[in-house]
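Notebook entry, structure prediction.
Reason for the run: the old model in the group folder had no record of what sequence produced it. Starting over properly, with the input documented here first.
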Amino acid sequence: MARRPSTMIFGNTLDDVDEEDEEYSDDESTSLMQEDTTAEGSHVKGWDVFENLPPEEDSGSNAEHKWIEVSMKIMKVLSYFVTFSMVLGCGVLAKGSLLLMASQIKPGKVTEYCNLELGPEKHFTSTIPEAEQVAWTWLLLIAVITPELGSFMRSIRICLFKFWDSPPLPYFLFVAGMETLNAIGTSLLVFTILPNLDSLRGAMLTNCVCFIPAILGFLSRNEDNQRESKGPSISKTDETQDKTASFEEFFNSEKSFLEVIRGLSRKGWIMYGVDFFAIFCQGMGLILWAFVEGIDNPRLWAIPFALLFISAGWWENYISKYSPFPFMKAISKVKDNLKTTRYFIYSFVSAWKIVVIFVVCLLSQHFNGMSVKNFFTKVEEGFSDHQVSVSQVQTVYNSQSGNLPDISAAVPIGESIGVNVSFLPPILVCIVQIVSAYFCYIFGKFACKICIQEFSFAFPVNLTVPVTVTVLTLLCTNKATDACYYHGTLPDYLFFDSPSMYMLTQYISEKHVWVWVFWLISQSWITIHIWAPKCDRVASTDKLFVIPLYSSVVLDQSLALNRRQDDQPDLLSEELDDFLETSDKPDSGRMTDNQVKASDCIPRIYACATMWHETREEMIEMLKSIMRLDADQSARHNAQQYFRVVDPDYYKLEIHVFFDDAYELTDDEDEEKVVNQFVKLLVATIDEAASHVHETHVKVRPPKKYPTPYGGRLVWVLPGKNKMIAHLKDKTKIRQKKRWSQVMYMYYLLGHRLIDLPMPTACKEMRAENTFILALDGDIDFQPQAVQLLVDLMKKNRNLGAACGRIHPVGSGPMVWYQKFEYAVGHWLQKATEHTIGSVLCSPGCFSLFRGKALMDDNVMRRYTTRAYEARHYVQYDQGEDRWLCTLLLQRGHHVEYSAASDAYTHCPEGFNEFYNQRRRWVPSTMANIFDLLGDYKRTVECNANISTLYIVYQMVLMAGTVLGPGTIFLMLVGAFVAAFKIDNWTSFYYNLIPIMIYMFVCFLCKSDVQLWTALLISTVYGLVMIAVLVGIMMQIAEDGPLAPSSLFLFIVASEFIVTAILHPKEIGCLPHGITYYITVPSMYLLLIIYSVFNMNNVSWGTREIISRRRRQEMEEEKKKKAEEALKNKGKKKSLLGFLGPAGGDDAGSMEFSFAGLFKCMLCTHKDDSKAEEKRSLLQITESLERLGKRMENIERCIDPRGMTSGRRRSVISSAGSNFLGTLAEEDANDVDDEISDRSDSGSMISEPKIERDDLVNPYWIEDPDLKNGDVEILSRDEMVFWKDLIDKYLYPIAESDDEKKKIANDLKQLRDKSVFAFFMLNAFFVVIVFLLQLHRDLLHVTWPLGVKNNITYVATAHEIIITKKYLQLEPIGLIFVFFFGIILIIQFVAMLIHRLGTFSHILASTELSCYCNKKVANVNDEEMSSKEAVSVIREFMRVKDSDRDLDYDSKKAKKERRMDRYNAGQRTTVEKLERKKSKQTHQSISLTSVLRERLNSIRPDTIESMSSRLSVRRSTLRGIQRAQSVIREETERRRSLTGGYPRRRSSQTGNSFSDISTMSLEENSEEKSFRNNLRNAQESPVFARRQTPRKSVQFKENADLGSDV
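New structure, fully documented this time:
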């Protein structure tokens, strides 16, 4: 299917590739896998068909934790049934307990009493005393106002710690008025109506609280799914008029109801008819029992008012801006305003509702004939043990009428007796009601969050009243049959108010109970939206429910009516063309159309990876992750394009790779720039990565090459038709390092590609909110699901600025073991706690998702470009750029979250030195950023809704622990030595102090290598000591007992780690590495901190550093200096006593003498110019001879190209060329460099003259054959100007003078010295104070109350037994420190549990059982295809591995063949496979869309049965396939009609050549004239004649933007 062509594509590049491109045509004539004729050697020889298949890896993100996947599916199935049971059970229990409580406050309540103890042949009744009714009323009042109290506390918390806004006064009064009506109605129902109705009818009456929602839903409905216009249009004009709207608009209806009715279709008539029926049923419920029984019981006339007022509480959920009535649209503005003012309003309204409920309760007591004064005076009596009056009565059952006499009117025939009863049953019933209602709400919300709403929320909510009525009927029947039926279960004097009808049929007919069925049906219709949820996974509570909490009186109705229905219209399949719109260039008139289109709301993900010196394996892992993401996006796009379904998880994708220091100099005299070995490695490994992912040998088309102002650019089109752009940075043109690469892509993607777009502000606002930058490292490994989980968090919270995942270190060795446990504990406890109680402080740049709108905020992106001028800036800005960026986001009020379900794997340092150098950067930058945040905490707390003062205190305590960590570890070692080696405190103190002081002096005086070697030595010793310390600790525990502070602390920490690991079953393998963590504690928390602080002045990267190639002139100058120094010191090496002074130098003496050549004495020395000149001459001669010899060898190679006589140097070069990352000795490398240079010189001298080059037109690097034979193009003028301006303003290379370097180095040393002094003094004070207090515990201590030892002494002489108690003694400072640390552990453990629950919900929400189980109830029709089913089918059809097979290939046979290949080598059909591969004879470049189209076209009706074993072929799947085939046919016919039935010429698709560009109509100015002249000169240059290929010559193209060529 061809897509609409565009000239500006998603910010110039982000769109799917045009399918009419000559290289990626999806026409039916296109082969399944096209031959790549652009690559050299693409033709496969018949004898060269043997393959090296990609390995099936089971490590990293590809590791299949099958038991985890199976267990999560089992957990999801269990969640369906457990949540259903809890919602239904708790709902029935809450409603039943409320009816039981209401029954007890009925005036003159009389209950038949059990006669087992008073007389089996007699009948008794019990009367509840007034004091107990007062207690029941108070408890009922508490149950009613508990949700309102919770809503008040929630509103106050959010107003105090998060953002709020004040509403206009009319809006506030309107909301307060509606909530007041709800409070009045609730109180009337509970305290007036329910006590005067039997419990069965009371339960039925709760289905009649939907009258106002029914009316509003009727008025809000229009014919097309409650929408008036096509597409989800969001006008910003409405938002700006919210606060100025007048309430006069509510009744200024310009469109009459009759006009709306006339325009209805048949479907519209049906919908309106059902709405009217529901309104009629609800209205009948308001008046039925009031008219039927109101004369006998006037209190029932309150029913219409109570039910009507209650229904006013859910007006907001049934107001829609798409209503055809203007006054409804005016009311919708109040609803829109509540999005930001809700909690401010409800902080007052909730308290007001509590007051209103209490006042109406008092009035109800008065109208019920009870004394208001007794309501307060008899509270104490009601909540204490008291007596219930029991009387003997005579009751007669009338079998003819079926009526039971009114028990309250029964005539007593005996004296009344008092029975003692407890005050606890009413309290227990109230607790049951409150707890069950809350759990029903919690589990209902949980069901909505994990996307099981239909079965586990909507179904039980609708069943609550029917089940309650059924249960009450059984209970009342049993009680009426036998008054002692519940004896021993319930108090005999307590029961529901049973109906006065003994026969059920008579009760249904005479009491008009049959009407309840229509009430139930009407409620189900009014709340039908709960069967078709539209929320995101793990949506926030505000997105799930309208008002903060629930109503305990009508619990199930409040959950259904309060469940938010999305008034945004559904995206229909007819609107997919706009949803899949690939062009970002606005249509004509788009600037005047201020409406947001559906395509503006699509998440746009820019995956931006920063690379430097990654190894081959690391690059492959990153590229594999990109390929998986590309395939996932392509599957989602094709599912929508061909199956015409809407995928809620669809996103657009573009990949950017930023290479630092990507160029190096050639070895010829011209010293041209070429890409370095790492760029070549990336180009060479992309095919291998694609082969790994698609499980067969595939080939990605060669990249297009662009000269740019910052260096160059390589552009690939991946198999899924997403682009991957590699930006090659030249350090002489633009700043290097990771932070400046981030500045590049922020300004390019968010500035040039978004802000510069000519579109309305509202559209840019929406795009900025849905534009995400996925920050990656060059060695990251992840799955598409991990990215989707981060996007879920972004959708959940619009205030979220960044989200990070769980980072898993990858590697081998003890250092990796340590890091695995360290990362695990850091994520399990620290990040989870930050996420729960505040905000995550650091979102690591190796795998994080940033929201574009947050980065574009003030003081974020612009401040991130700040150049470091001060010493502390070098530490904070450049050493920890990821943490600093998050600090800027937090200081601007944005939130940062952590998703434990989003896994990513990154390579970590495996060597001791590399690890220390990495942490040398991290530790100071972490401390600097946290100090920056804490120093400005007042402003941060004020503007950031997620950071509170308590969270700042928590971070302060952690920072204090970090600063005093070395002192704490030192004291721990001192105590451990005492316990393990049985030595005194001072000796242990000296043993630990000496090595630490030695290491501090080494760090202050010696170079980094010596420091690292010393740290490794001390760490090794301490590792052995820690084993002995562990034994000593066990002995100390045995001596002091398990309740000693040290024992308890050890047990608590170990238990916390074990329980935490169990709660993370996927990562439980990290737990054994805790042994390595324990052994290395002194090294990592003492020596590493010292090393980091003492090397704060070292701001180099420290890892992955190599020596770059320098210019020839610089190398020659350095070579001369070395040679002169070597000749100068030659005498020293030859003379035995050369160390006494220079011998053999350039000095001469007026008087000289020597003895046997052992020494030489010179008197009155002076410079001997003749000797110096002689040495220089010899040096020049030597260099000339070496150069001449190398040139001779080059000439020999030209004569003998195969190099049969080459010798040693040839082998060296071959080995270097085979492995880009191979390292050579310095001398050999120089020889090779000289050889390559000489060979280039000789080649250029023989072949052609020097070529004039322009870095923006024909740079030398573009001709590198290792970059493959892709097209060469140039940037558009706008983008060229953008890059030049950006570099000139922010990214120009920093050329520091020697004086500036010295000043910066001096400032860094001063900062280091100050930090070292402060660090040393703080730890010294802490150690001295705690150690001295430890020595003098007898005088100043705190007695530990646990673990007391009793000493029993028997004095034989006095015949006495003396018992003494010995308490453990703790020093105060140490106790305080342990206390705070214990509090931190408790906080972290509780926060981990909360976060783990959220993660569990997120994982369950993302777990798919089957396509059918996930199908929405609204689409249960088997003819319709769900989005997940469509994506699953598309993925199966896009499998490249089986693309050479027919679709009717027997899957059982394929599985059998795969099993034979794996387990039975003798039965493999090896030759058959090789012949099949031989018949292809080519390496192929794949297009996943082409694979899909060809396989869809190849399906025949008779192949469906054979497909059923591989695909879940249902009728919806078959209809989807037929729809896709029709779409392909339509697009093919349209393409043929456009081309006149002939295929497109390739030349029309290859872009503009130089001659084309020269005739382009551009604005004539000097810059563009010069630009075109350069293009013509480049076209005429000899390089193009020299670089001819069998296919075509290199062509340059100019695009209107980067993406228009595709």
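Summary: The chain has a mean pLDDT of 77.
The old model has been moved to the deprecated folder.
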